[in-house]
Specification:
Blueprint lengths: L9 H14 L5 E5 L20 E4 L2 H7 L12 E4 L2 H5 L3 E6 L5 H9 L17 E5 L1 H4 L9
Parallel strand pairs: 1-4, 4-5
Antiparallel strand pairs: 2-3
Amino acid sequence: MRFAGTSPEPEAACRAYEEEVRAAGGYDLAVLGLGANGHLGFNEPPVNPHSPTRVVALRKETVESNASYWGGCAGVPRRAVTAGMDVLLAARQILLLVSGTRKRGVLRRTIEGPIAPALPASYLRRAPNVTVIADEAAWRSDDVGPPD
């Protein structure tokens, strides 16, 4: 299954993709990165855990953090297609990959803070099978060790 990212009707393509995922029984494995603002798969905050697969407007911080991949902010698309939070959170296994010091605070809030629309990654705490792999830079700071 692939997103029809260049479809002339992106919203219809998102609905068709989600229907195809559901018809196949959902994701066996969702491999996700943690966005600097707590987004998952471009599910930008605020978002509810039942948000469908859709076209989203990217927030300024997401555009900025992706600029190096697109030759600067001017080249970054301002919209993206994303698998909905509902299908991501229903995956049988979720692997969250986190790296770098700039992700340290958002990782900490994801693990320990309130579960809220302002931090989409916090919904992972309600998912039954999540594994977090974080490098030392994202995990530690001078004043805070790993959560107990």
